[in-house]
Design goal:
Chain lengths: 311, 359
């Protein structure tokens, strides 16, 4: 009875009694959700253009952040480190296309998925071999003081993260809608064969999309790195991005954003209000169960393409 | 010359439908079993039995379970570790609650409990497919591990959260679990279980059930139209697969390590077993064994290789290099033969059939 009360009554009554606290929790969650979206974005880009479920995205985030912070620690200025890290991620995209994707073209999706898990192991080892496995603190001058806006306590860092993510999405949207390369990317995402037949070079497109995902990973890595420090556990954030993906749909950029917001807010609310009753640490699986329940009603995710099956 | 079925005439339907219709295959299986039962216990050291043979068999059993679900029924699952944990903890609760019950029944019962849990987590598969399902099965992985960690009832309120196997014997005197169990007894016990379960799996997948799984895997709508019920078939696949994984988890906790905490069955374990079936071969019983052997032996080899050739490098460097080699090998394997070791074996047999006149 106590347990039922703690699950079904107490959380709601405490929400009711203290609405501004609820609002604070939700806003905090939304801002964390933005960070999940950043990681999920990389997944979506690659899945859309090449149909590869890129499990290595989390490790790409870590690798990009390690490169960035490693250069900074060796006295390279901020802008140059960012530039070099971008070049490194692009070079990696070339290598991945050449070594992994091209030989495996036309294989089943699960095989490509496994190959990206192999890539995860490789990059984990490689990144830590080159840059060392310790925690690298990263401070690029983002303020961390709490702000009070309209009576609600907000972390300034989260706000900056949200702004960065928002502008990144805007740039990506412009890139996809207004440039020739972006149009080619969308064409490939729509239909590989049709794109090939109008003369879009598939291989170049793959390199571009992996490079873009790498740069998105770099931004995500910098943001996560400045809040947690650049360390191995950043690559585990990818596991948090997966429920975001199934919520939003694998093929939708807005879905990744909205999914991230839902997961971030839901997770925080659940942890704060239901955590005490269930013994805490429900963050680990709550997002998955949320996504699972959601999928039962809408199997293709929020904005995913409806799957039409023919026999 | 050696591998040729010419001249082996079948005179009855029973002979035609045999599990291994070719004499050489029967001989090979018999030889493998003879080596496993007689030669290995006689020559293998305790180290070999405990750190290589037993984990190999346990992993093979788990891979078999996942292969039934992913390879035969086509439902990608990343929740294997969770199901193994269910098997381990169910065995622990049963063994401590009913000390008089024979350990064989306890293992089987734990398998049945895991099968029920598997059915529960298999329900989403009716609505969602492919990678969506794969990610959804992660829910079971994270939820189950969290549950076993969080509620002390599952580990009988042990302060460290570790469950340790109470000593139990088969036939009254051969201890297979607990501290003073003899490695050879343990090994033979696991081997018998795995051999029996592998044989049942082999039979299951070539019968009506297995064919309906494969029909669902290849095209579920078409399968539905020819009268296969997706609900029953998919849930059955989840149940059978979880049964195998549950027993594998129970063996892992009780016979291989002797004591285990829930974290031993985390997501890495699930990936490890997924690797085994991909490298071994999806939809192949033999492949599960080959894949398990590869994944169990490779880290041991990578551990010892630098020392053997006389390189002296830092431990962290070794770990990173291992991780790199492991990842690179997986990619190379997928590029060379995406259908796994079992396919290579098959190609080898085809070649052997032609040899020495390949035309």
């Amino acid at each position: 009875m106590d347990f039922l009360y703690a699950i079904a009554v107490a959380p709601f009554s405490s929400m009711w009694e203290n609405p501004s606290f609820l609002l604070e929790v939700i806003i905090g969650g939304l801002l964390t959700g933005v960070m999940y979206s950043l990681v999920a974005l990389g997944f979506v880009l690659i899945y859309k253009a090449s149909g590869v479920f890129n499990f290595a995205q989390g490790t790409m985030v870590l690798f990009a952040a390690l490169t960035f912070v490693g250069l900074l620690e060796r006295g390279v200025p901020l802008w140059a480190s960012f530039l070099i890290a971008t070049v490194v991620m692009t070079a990696m995209a070339f290598a991945i296309e050449r070594v992994v994707l091209r030989p495996l073209v036309n294989q089943e999706q699960i095989i490509l998925f496994m190959a990206t898990i192999g890539l995860t192991f490789f990059l984990d080892g490689f990144g830590q071999l080159v840059w060392g496995g310790d925690v690298h603190p990263l401070d690029i001058g983002i303020p961390k003081e709490p702000l009070i806006i309209g009576g609600v306590l907000i972390n300034a860092f989260d706000l900056v993260a949200a702004i960065v993510c928002g502008s990144l999405v805007a740039v990506l949207a412009l890139f996809f809608q207004k440039t020739a390369v972006g149009r080619a990317l969308r064409a490939v995402a729509d239909d590989h064969q049709a794109a090939l037949s109008v003369g879009i070079p598939l291989k170049t497109i793959w390199v571009i999309v992996w490079a873009v995902a790498g740069v998105v990973g770099l931004v995500a890595g910098i943001m996560w790195g400045s809040s947690l420090g650049v360390q191995f556990s950043i690559s585990l954030v990818a596991l948090k991005a997966l429920p975001v993906l199934i919520l939003g749909g694998f093929t939708s950029v807005p879905g990744a954003i909205v999914g991230g917001l839902i997961v971030g807010a839901g997770e925080k609310v659940a942890e704060v209000f239901w955590g005490p009753a269930t013994g805490g640490a429900i963050e680990d699986w709550f997002a998955y169960v949320l996504a699972l329940v959601f999928l039962l009603f809408r199997p293709q995710g929020l904005f995913g393409e409806r799957i039409i099956e023919r026999v | 010359m050696l591998y040729r079925e010419a001249g082996q005439f079948k005179t009855s339907y029973a002979a035609d439908q045999a599990v291994f219709p070719i004499r050489q295959d029967r001989f090979f299986i018999a030889a493998a079993l003879a080596i496993a039962y007689i030669v290995i216990p006689a020559v293998a050291s305790e180290y070999w039995l405990l750190t290589i043979m037993i984990p190999f068999l346990v992993f093979a059993l788990a891979a078999l379970g996942l292969n039934i679900l992913t390879g035969y029924a086509g439902q990608v699952s990343l929740g294997t570790g969770g199901f193994m944990a269910v098997g381990a903890f169910a065995t622990y609760k049963l063994a401590t609650a009913f000390p008089g019950l024979n350990i064989v029944f306890i293992f089987l019962l734990a398998g049945v409990i895991t099968a029920l849990v598997g059915i529960l987590f298999g329900f989403p598969s009716l609505r969602i497919k492919g990678f969506y399902l794969a990610v959804a099965t992660l829910a079971s992985q994270f939820f189950l591990i969290w549950m076993f960690n969080k509620f002390p009832w599952f580990n009988n309120y042990s302060p460290s959260g570790v469950i340790s196997a109470p000593p139990r014997a088969v036939f009254g005197r051969f201890f297979v679990t607990g501290a003073e169990a003899d490695p050879v007894d343990k090994y033979l016990f696991v081997l018998t279980f795995v051999a029996a379960l592998a044989f049942s799996a082999k039979n299951l997948v070539r019968g009506r059930v297995g064919r309906s799984w494969m029909a669902i895997r290849d095209m579920d709508i078409a399968a539905e139209i020819i009268g296969i019920r997706p609900l029953r078939t998919k849930l059955l696949a989840f149940a059978v697969s979880s049964f195998y994984c549950g027993i594998a988890g129970a063996f892992w906790a009780f016979i291989y390590t002797g004591g285990v905490e829930a974290l031993a069955f985390d997501i890495d374990r699930s990936f490890q077993i997924l690797f085994m079936i991909i490298i071994g071969g999806l939809g192949s019983i033999l492949g599960s064994f080959l894949g398990a052997a590869f994944i169990v032996l490779l880290p041991i080899f990578l551990d010892n290789a630098p020392r053997t050739i006389g390189l002296d490098i830092h431990v962290n460097t070794v770990t990173n290099l291992q991780s790199m080699t492991f990842g690179a090998l997986i990619i190379i394997f997928l590029v060379v033969e995406p259908r796994g070791l079992a396919r290579l074996w098959q190609i080898g047999k085809e070649k052997l059939r032609m040899w020495p006149f390949p035309y």
